[in-house]
Amino acid sequence: MMKKIIFILALFILSAGYSFGQKERKFVREGNKLYEQALSDTKKLDTVTFNKAEIAYRKALNLKPKEYKWNFNLADALYKQKRFSEAEKSFKALSTKCTDKMDKARCFHNLGNSLIMQNKIDESIDAYKDALRLNPKDMDTKYNLAYAQSQKKKQNDKNNKNNKNNKNQQNKNNKNNQNKNNQNKDQNKNQNKDQNKNNQNKQDQNSGLSKSNAQSILQALDNEEKNNQQKLRKLKAQSAQRQKIDKDW
Asked: What is this structure's pTM?
């Protein structure tokens, strides 16, 4: 099982052929000494001493800013302080400026490390592959590439699981909503049925009252018709009586 990525340490020291000034040599040697001192503490990450090494390298670079090897040492010191974003920028810049094949491969290797520590897994895989194109036999880079690819697989598995869970939850929500809609539909149907029944009862009640009223009206009209007929017969009788009297005269 892979436990951690492998960091390529390449502290560049001064060779006999270098003809830098006294101050520059002093700062670089001081930085290397502090860096190695910080590495010797296996119980904890000595960021304080790594920071002192960074300061020493920066002093040397103030005198010779474009020196590749000192910039590489500075990038290493940044990485060891867990300032991974800054280390990424430094190693990326160095990878474009470096002309030596092996040095360039080391830049890509540590660039991959800086990226994976920021969870930029895809980019780290690309950086490790770039390093292996330049140095195919580098076992440390192969190890880190395999580690990054395993992390990518875990990430994909996690995303697939989350997507599946989200889909199941969505289906569950849709089912619950459908059941709720069906319940509301049944409830509305029952309410409409009850309302229609109440309206029918009211109509029946109104219809009953109207029938009773109609019968009363018809009875009144019938009584009035009978009265009128009696009056008419009475008038006819009186008329006939007058006619009879007139003939007798």
From this structure: 0.63
